């Protein structure tokens, strides 16, 4: 019907939490930002863009959430999370770079829950 | 998911020849501060966006809650900017913002639990930030600890200054921001001034690279 495929948000939650776990491990091991975390961020970014595509398609179809402004705000801010975190984490040449990436992973997971609250058709 | 093969790559990619000592100068935004600034920026953005939407679209519904949201947003923005800046004056403002933030989350947290009618819609600080995983409650504590670490660090650098050279002491006196950082600091400023009568230190202090 008019619901967004729940597989993508669920994958984003899993991917975000996995990335956060991996990043926190790097922090615990006193490692700086590396290729592994950048690849993880890239995967997260692609997943977020796919989800944005699905949600926008639903909007184009004529669906409207209770607060369209809020949804649009989320759609704009969401893809920036991995990019900004990647930049901010990469300039830090210590264990705290990966810690920033961990925040991005957690935020991505939390955003999925918030998206569902904003618009129930976005299933988790 | 997080491919185990990638972990060996984590370190060697950047030029390992560069020791940590040659990294850019430390500040309140580097090291643990990097994480702190990231979380503060996140809250600054989300709180201000949320407050803007709430005030613009449904202000009449819960004016007190929405105005408090906007106030919280301003405090978060101020803390983010001052932590990124990291100058003595900025750190002083950051201490104020973190303190206001801590007081705010405790006061609004209690108020929202006692008087639910005033808060039909949640603010960042409602229920001690329970809607945000209690991060709003923990964040100012870490912020203040981080700023205290920096105050101590600056203080020990200043106390070491007279023996290391008058340039540092002159620099400390020339900096208006440090004078009011705390009672301990101003005391040391006086001591540093008394212990280093050599006024040429001020001329040398001007050449001192800005920290």
- The amount of beta strand of chain A, in percent, is under 5%
Largest sheet of chain A: none
Q: What percent of residues of chain B are in strands?
A: under 5%
Could you tell me the number of beta strands of chain A?
Answer: 0
- Weakly predicted, low-confidence segments of chain B: 1-21, 164-211
Question: Which chains share the greatest interface?
Answer: A-B, 35 and 29 residues
Number of DSSP E strands of chain B:
0
Quaternary state reads heterodimer
Q: Tally the helices of chain A.
A: 5
Task: Give an overview in words.
The complex is a heterodimer of chains A (124) and B (211). Chain A has 124 residues and is mainly α. Chain A contains 5 helices and no strands. Chain A has helices spanning 7-28, 35-60, 68-77, 80-90, 96-118. The longest helix of chain A is centred in the middle third of the chain and has 26 residues, at 35-60. Chain A is elongated, with a radius of gyration of 15 Å. Chain A starts with 6 loop residues before the first helix and ends in a 6-residue tail after the last helix. The mean pLDDT of chain A is 93. Chain B is elongated and about 60 Å long. With 211 residues, chain B is mostly helical. Chain B has a domain at 33-147. In chain B, helix 1 (32-58) packs across helix 4 (135-164). Chain B contains 7 helices and no strands. The relative contact order of chain B is 0.10. Chain B has helices at 32-58, 63-85, 88-114, 135-164, 166-174, 183-195, 200-207. The A-B interface holds A 14-15, 18-19, 21-22, 26, 31-37, 39-40, 67, 69-70, 73, 77, 85, 88-89, 91-94, 96-97, 99-100, 103, 107, 110 and B 1-3, 6-7, 9-11, 13-14, 18, 20, 23, 30-35, 37-39, 42, 45, 49, 53, 56-57, 133.
Key descriptive features of the protein:
heterodimer, A: 124 residues, mainly alpha, 74% helix, 0% strand, B: 211 residues, 65% helix, disordered C terminus
In a nutshell, what does this entry contain?
The complex is a heterodimer of chains A (124) and B (211). Chain A has 124 residues and is an all-alpha fold.
